[in-house]
Design a protein that fits this description.
458 residues; 13 helices; five-stranded antiparallel sheet; alpha+beta
């Protein structure tokens, strides 16, 4: 309850104003009714206690009730003032924590910005060195030749000098051409990086959420990178998997873990040692991995006699292609500058069907009472239907794989806003997404993998 109040307090300005106003008004109110500070009852109690024996001798047991009332009133005022003081301390500590967090985030963003500038300067320096290697030699670097050569009677022109002059003109033209190309490179590096393979920078975030704070996280995820042989070329690859377990805490955790392990055990050995791979085979390889994962979860559920399952989405990134699969409502997004955010996968959920049928609007997905009901998942049956997609990637694309604990708490426009910050690295981006999901309510386990596609520069 306290965590939900903190998120509510952080999200709305009027909530913060109301909280501060209530603390100020309550302090003023009790200050007035108690007769100032310290309260009048405290002062009376302090004066009465030394005279209790004398009052008892004069009035007997009649002094018990007034003393008891005075003591209870003094204790009540004490508890009220302690509560007000604790409220002030809690609000001030939370404010200080938020300030510190914003400072840390700004510091990290500034460090990333400075690192990007340094990398840009290093690339420009390398480009200048690359250009300097092709500069034409000057006459001062060549040995001196006589203007003419004597052949007995006549003087013949020095063909060595003529040959050098011709080659020097030709080399000068080549140098000018290189200068022009270098100018294009410095202004638009994509033109010469486009034919180079792409690489990934990956960041991930994982949180149990607020509502399930005392329960195990049922999400499992993996993000790995390696190198494989593809079409007789050595290329980097990335394998990203997010699974959201279902069927109770222990059963859901077990199901998602089994699914991720089965995917790794099937996909990695096949892409590591096979040379002749096509787009169709790679897509089918990922689909077979999901089917293996489904069979593993199904067999475990039969062994233990428990109702367990999991959703899954996975992406295999190889060079400029991404092969994506999904079962359930865990999603894969792609963000591209100029094109915006695009949901690659399709949710296998009841609310997705209702939207497709026109019975509810897309915005009602986030509030519909049956939004967590999926009609297709791993572990329900021995066989499962798997959706498969293939994407063409380009430099600065971003892939996001996430469970419903993220996208239900963070609407697509906010996800797009966070992903479009190119100055953030994927680790910072994933942390920002997790924070946004927690501020949105944090009602479920949250998993996010962010992959930033970058060119391999010379």
């Amino acid at each position: 309850m306290l965590e939900r109040f903190k998120l509510f307090y952080d999200r709305y300005l009027w909530a913060r104003c109301a909280c501060w106003g209530m603390l100020i008004l309550s302090a003023l109110f009790f200050f007035m009714i108690s007769g100032g500070f310290p309260p009048t009852s405290w002062r009376l109690l302090a004066q009465t206690i030394p005279q209790v024996a004398h009052l008892w001798g004069l009035h007997g047991t009649a002094v018990v009730l007034p003393l008891a009332i005075l003591g209870l009133q003094s204790l009540s005022y004490l508890l009220v003032w302690i509560g007000i003081l604790c409220g002030w301390i809690a609000v001030l500590r939370h404010w200080r924590h938020n300030v510190h967090e914003r400072q840390q985030f700004a510091k990290a963003a500034q460090e990333q910005f400075e690192r990007a500038i340094q990398q840009r300067q290093e690339q420009e320096q390398m480009a200048q060195e690359y250009k300097a290697q092709f500069r034409a030699p000057t006459m001062a670097h060549l040995p001196a030749f006589p203007a003419t050569m004597r052949t007995g009677q006549a003087q013949q022109p020095n063909y060595v000098e003529q040959t050098y002059a011709t080659s020097h003109v030709s080399q000068t033209r080549q140098t000018k051409q290189l200068d022009t190309e270098h100018t294009v490179v410095s202004k638009a590096p994509v033109q010469w990086e486009r034919k180079l393979p792409l690489r990934l920078e990956i960041g991930s975030g994982w949180d149990v959420g607020i509502k399930r704070k005392q329960q195990p996280n049922e999400d499992s995820m993996v993000a790995m990178q390696g190198t494989c042989i593809y079409n007789n070329a050595l290329l980097p690859f990335g394998l990203l998997v997010v699974a959201d377990g279902m069927g109770g805490h222990a059963a859901g955790q077990d199901a998602s873990y089994l699914a991720v392990q089965a995917m790794l055990q099937w996909v990695v050995p096949h892409i590591a040692g096979v040379n002749a791979m096509s787009d169709e085979l790679l897509a089918e390889l990922l689909v077979d991995g999901v089917r293996r994962a489904n069979l593993a979860v199904y067999q475990r559920s039969q062994e233990v006699g428990a109702d367990m399952g999991t959703t899954i989405t996975a992406a295999l990134v190889l060079d400029s292609r991404a092969y994506v699969v999904n079962v359930g409502d865990s999603r894969t997004y792609r963000y591209r500058e100029g094109d915006g955010l695009r949901q690659v996968t399709h949710d296998h959920s009841l609310v997705a069907r209702l939207v497709a049928a026109g019975r509810i609007t897309p915005d009602e997905i986030y509030t519909h009472p049956d939004r967590n009901q999926v009609y297709r998942g791993l572990g329900d049956k021995r066989n499962v239907e798997v959706d498969s997609f293939m994407l063409t990637l380009q430099a600065n694309d971003r892939l996001l794989l996430c469970s419903d604990g993220l996208w239900e708490m963070v609407r697509d426009p906010e996800i797009e806003r966070i992903l479009q910050h190119s100055e953030w690295n994927p680790a910072q981006t994933s942390k920002a997404l997790i924070r946004s999901a927690l501020k949105g309510g944090g009602l479920d386990n949250i998993s996010a993998i962010v992959a930033h596609v970058l060119p391999i520069t010379l």
